[in-house]
């Protein structure tokens, strides 16, 4: 999968640098021949994180433009390349988002980096479209505890937003959410609450009060209040979040059964991971075990109850969560199983 190269043998002005750390490259990917690394470790990191998904897509984007005599051919080539770069940007962004929700921060970094580079290729180096990539890089670094690069990316994002008066509410919302996360980690909870209030304001303006985007802000606020020991507020916020997700997922399920779901409405991988993360946190393992055991007893009392199996599955999941010693999340269940667990929790809690 890799071949050695000698940086000294490169033509003048064409130094190859590592895809991840930008130090001189000594090996190259032998599947695409257009991606270079300082060594095996960075090649492996990149392969696992994003490269295996985009290796072939990179070939036309990074291959020098052939000589075209006709302008129409040149234009056609440019529009094809632009299309590929946009595709690369979208794929790497979704992959980085998904890994972030799964708390695989180290793996999300190479994907986020590629999404920034592709966004720069498509939109230039100071466009507002770079902000989502800056925020992904900031979040990955926050997750890894590297606060100084996180602050650097956030300040570039903030600067870009400030000098773009027509900046959308979605971008403002994402910026405030990320700032909220940074201040939570720094322990400045008041500042974090200020940014999350802004996050919720922009989210409800753009998506509505009871959208799943808005409730993401409430979810983080609950985290702060739980650090402050204000459990009454935490419980009521979690109740709101659970209500929103329940109604969202019920609608989706209904549309799915009726076969009227549109591609925009179905979850992408990142949204599945987000839903999974939130539902698991709210079904905090110890509590989930307790009510799961109660639910199992109740379900056995009801003749022909088809709940026993899902309840057993929930118990198994909760036990797995309790036993998980490291920070990495187990393989994502499909969206439908998150739905089952959640519906179950709603049903049981209504008793
Ligand atoms: Zn490197
Ligand atoms: Zn490759």
TrEMBL record:
It comes from the Eukaryota. Pfam families: zf-MYND. Coiled coil: none annotated. PROSITE patterns: ZF_MYND_1 (PS01360), ZF_MYND_2 (PS50865). The keyword Iron does not apply. Keywords: Metal-binding, Zinc, Zinc-finger. Residues 18-55 form the MYND-type domain. Gene3D superfamilies: 6.10.140.2220, Tetratricopeptide repeat domain. GO terms for molecular function: zinc ion binding. Residues 326-351 are annotated as: Disordered. PANTHER family: ZINC FINGER MYND DOMAIN-CONTAINING PROTEIN 12. This is MYND-type domain-containing protein.
């Amino acid at each position: 999968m890799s071949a050695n190269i000698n940086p000294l043998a490169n033509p003048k002005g064409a130094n190859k640098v590592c895809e991840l750390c930008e130090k001189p490259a000594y090996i190259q990917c032998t599947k695409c021949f257009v991606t270079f690394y300082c060594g095996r470790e960075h090649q492996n990191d990149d392969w696992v994180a994003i490269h295996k998904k985009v290796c072939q897509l990179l070939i036309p984007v990074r291959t020098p433009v052939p000589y075209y005599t006709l302008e129409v051919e040149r234009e056609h080539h440019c529009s094809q390349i632009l299309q590929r770069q946009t595709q690369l940007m979208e794929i790497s962004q979704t992959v980085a988002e998904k890994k972030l929700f799964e708390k695989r921060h180290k793996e999300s970094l190479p994907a986020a980096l590629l999404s920034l580079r592709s966004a720069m290729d498509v939109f230039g180096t100071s466009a507002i479209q770079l902000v989502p990539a800056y925020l992904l890089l900031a979040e990955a670094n926050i997750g890894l505890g590297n606060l100084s690069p996180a602050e650097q990316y956030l300040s570039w994002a903030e600067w870009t937003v400030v000098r773009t008066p027509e900046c959308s509410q979605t971008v403002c919302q994402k910026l405030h959410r990320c700032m909220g996360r940074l201040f939570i980690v720094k322990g400045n909870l008041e500042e974090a609450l200020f940014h999350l209030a802004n996050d919720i304001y922009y989210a409800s303006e753009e998506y509505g009060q009871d959208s799943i985007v808005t409730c993401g802000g409430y979810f983080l606020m609950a985290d702060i209040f739980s650090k402050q020991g204000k459990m009454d507020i935490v419980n009521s916020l979690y109740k709101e979040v659970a209500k929103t997700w329940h109604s969202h997922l019920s609608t989706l399920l209904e549309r799915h059964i009726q076969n009227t779901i549109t591609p925009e409405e179905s979850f992408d991988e990142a949204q599945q991971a987000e839903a999974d993360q939130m539902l698991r946190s709210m079904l905090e393992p110890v509590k989930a075990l307790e009510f799961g055991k109660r639910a199992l007893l109740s379900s056995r009392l009801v003749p022909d109850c088809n709940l026993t199996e899902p309840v057993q599955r929930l118990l198994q999941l909760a036990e797995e969560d309790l036993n998980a010693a490291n920070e990495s999340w187990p393989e994502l269940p499909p969206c439908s199983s998150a739905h089952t667990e959640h519906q179950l929790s709603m049903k049981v809690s209504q008793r």
